[in-house]
Amino acid sequence: MHVIGTIITGIGTIFLFIGGLGVFRLPDVYNRLQAGTKCTTLGAFLTIIGVGIMHPGWLPKTLVIALFVLITNPISNHALGRASRRSGVPLCDRSVVDKAKEFEEYKGKG
Amino acid sequence: MSEIIFLAIIGLGILLCLLRMLKGPTASDRAVALDTMATITTALLVLLGSFFGRYVYLDVALVYAVLTFVGLVAIARFLEKGI
């Protein structure tokens, strides 16, 4: 049981490190947001569940924390992305498509 | 004692987020780096509880997750349209 929990925690830890690396390396706010929300949600979920499997008495509270992270982390990141889009942060130079701008033009046309 | 290796890897991730937060061109970059750092810190607190063998760290992690969510939604509202 301890070995399984250690392996799951190690996988989650590697995901967390990759999330931090993506936040440091990627060129744009939106790319950084993608790295920072997906990798971090999965990594935190796996790490917390792995600690709960390592110590079986701690499993209910770790389940509560993991479900809370799983629900609220995408919500706050979505709010941040919408705020940065509406406050006019530009995309990077290598972006090829801008669906939000097309949607605004379509909506303005009626 | 494999937790020491895990803590070192998580610490490297937090350090990279901190560099981005010091360097980021706009305010949104810093907010995104702060959000990533806060989620990594929640996992770090649970892992520290496993390392020291204390159950109390789980309560600290839960309260930290709740306060982080509320604070980041407030920061997003402020970036969008001001107070």
Chain oligomer state:
heterodimer
Give the overall shape of chain B. Answer: flat
Alpha carbon gap, first and last residue of chain B: 48 Å
| Rg of chain B | 15 Å
Structure description:
The complex is a heterodimer of chains A (110) and B (83). Chain A has helices at residues 2-25, 29-54, 59-86, 99-109. Chain A has 110 residues and is an all-alpha fold. Chain A has one domain (2-109). In chain A, helix 1 (2-25) packs antiparallel against helix 2 (29-54). The mean pLDDT of chain A is 89. With 83 residues, chain B is mostly helical. Chain B has one domain. Chain B has three helices and no strands. Chain B has helices at 3-23, 27-52, 56-81. Chain B is flat. The model of chain B has no long low-confidence stretch (mean pLDDT 90). At the A-B interface, helix 1, helix 2 and helix 3 of A face helix 1, helix 2 and helix 3 of B.
Short characterization:
Chain A contains four helices and no strands. Chain A is an all-alpha fold.
Features:
heterodimer; A: 110 residues; mainly alpha; 81% helix; 0% strand; elongated; B: 83 residues; 88% helix; flat
Blueprint of the fold:
The complex is a heterodimer of chains A (110) and B (83).
Chain A: H1 2-25, H2 29-54, H3 59-86, H4 99-109
Chain B: H1 3-23, H2 27-52, H3 56-81
Helix pairs in contact in B: 1-2, 2-3
